[in-house]
Amino acid sequence: MADGFSGKIKEKLIEAKQKWAENGRLLTGQADHAHENRLPPGQREVKDWPVLDLGITPHVGTDDFRLTIDGAVENPVTLDFGQLLDLPPFMAKNDIHCVTSWSRYDNHWQGVSALSLADLVKPTSDARHVLFTAHDGYTTNVRIDQFIDDDVLLAHHWEDAPLTEEHGGPVRVIIPKLYFWKSAKWVKQITFSKTDKPGFWEVRGYHNNADPWTEERYG
């Protein structure tokens, strides 16, 4: 497969999740546009943090970490871990919601805000989308307004400890308003784009927008 997973993925996991999309698994039809409840429709609260991935855990140390931000920007950059830490620090507390039906409240993050990154690279006026690529080859996509938001960050700490490898460390994306598959683990490239490019799950039947409150689980 062109997305870099060929020969590596647990194919049964992929097939199972594609069947979820085909069958509309977990859909309740009870959208909560007003966010009257803290828990989005079809979700359940968990106290732990489940580990979900595609059967691959890349080993990226902070010494090896590089983040490229490119595409429709005036100032493309490649940052090592130290340079990322030199950017203005950002702390956030939010809830996260996984399309597999779990939600976890009050997660405390430390990292760099998407607003700071945008200020650094200066997206061009015709940039409309943001594309993410991870060290395991995973890709996903959001609109530019979904990324350049005041609660979005690249996180390197969770609950006052370095983000663990299993949860996407050393650095992962956090976009709390969307289902968590949009928050790419092990991020290595962020590309601002004039055009959209659906990612790994989006081309396999999952919704391009991924709003938990309106149950945008599947396309």
TrEMBL record:
InterPro entries the record matches: OxRdtase_Mopterin-bd_dom (IPR000572), OxRdtase_Mopterin-bd_sf (IPR036374)
Domain of life where this protein originates: Bacteria
Protein known as: Molybdopterin-binding protein
A Pfam match: Oxidored_molyb
Signal peptide as annotated in the record: none
All copies of domain Oxidoreductase molybdopterin-binding, residue ranges: 57-201
SUPFAM superfamilies: Oxidoreductase molybdopterin-binding domain
